[in-house]
Write a structure and sequence with these properties.
Distance between the termini: 71 Å
Number of strands: 6
Mean pLDDT: 90
Largest sheet: 6 strands, mixed
Order of helices and strands: HHHHHHEHHHEHHEEEEHH
Strand order of the largest sheet: 3-2-1-4-5-6
Number of helices: 13
Helix content: 55-70%
Low-confidence stretches: none
Structural class: alpha/beta
Shape: elongated
Length: 299
Amino acid sequence: MTSNVGPTVRRRRLGQELRRLRQEKGMTAEEVAEELMVSQSKISRLENGRRSISQRDVRDLCRTYKVEDKALVDSLMQMAKESRQQGWWNAFGDVPYSVYIGFETDAASLRVYEPQVLPGLLQTPEYAEAVISGALPEAPQDQIAQRVQVRLRRQERITDPLSPLRLWAVVDEAAMRRVVGNSKIMSDQLDYLVRMSHEPHVTVQALPFDMGSHPGMSGQFTILEFSDESDTSVVYLEGVTSDLYLEKLSDVQSYSMMYEHLRAQALNADQSRQFITEVAQEHARRHEEGAAGEADAAD
């Protein structure tokens, strides 16, 4: 129970253990909440790992469940203490998707489908800034700069020489053709995407328009998998004001099946590099034509 993981996954493991103890006791979350004189939602949040768990919470729950194994109680108390430690992202202030970053930081592999933008872990700084500026048109510049820095810090998992994150990304053609920032930014971004796709732990597949309808038309999703078998996979769905994390086995299996269909319909790795390179060249030509037009106008 005390492996080297971050606070987000540690809270999740602790919550799962507390849920197991409650179920073994044959109590409902409502009954526990009533006995401890707290809200039922608090018990649910503690068990799903979405809220920090204090040592006092663990002590009270263990008393309620009449846990007599002192070693187990001590271990849970230690997990609660360690789960309240701050992750690296806390140094950047209030990060709205900190729960996801915590999962991503401890994940062994990610399977990503992106229909509108290129994967955040494979973005250049210029593209990232243009994406974030467009998504948050009323945000002050310092907030945009902060989010860019967080995104670049997340990318260190890809280049980690000791334990690089395994990334598999299926990217819709729309994300490659949408001009984010300008054509030069897009050309450089797509060239970078091709370079990164040559890394042994990174796979990028393009999903062209002419492939027609496909299972991912409902939107973006990410499947996070962990090296410890006790940490079940998580499906992440990004929202505007809140995000959704699916952990039920049936949900994970459904999205995994969707992803297999997406991979089957997408171009293979070599074909994808060629396709992305061609789109990058189109953006580069537009940039050159625009620069030439501006020069002629200046003359």
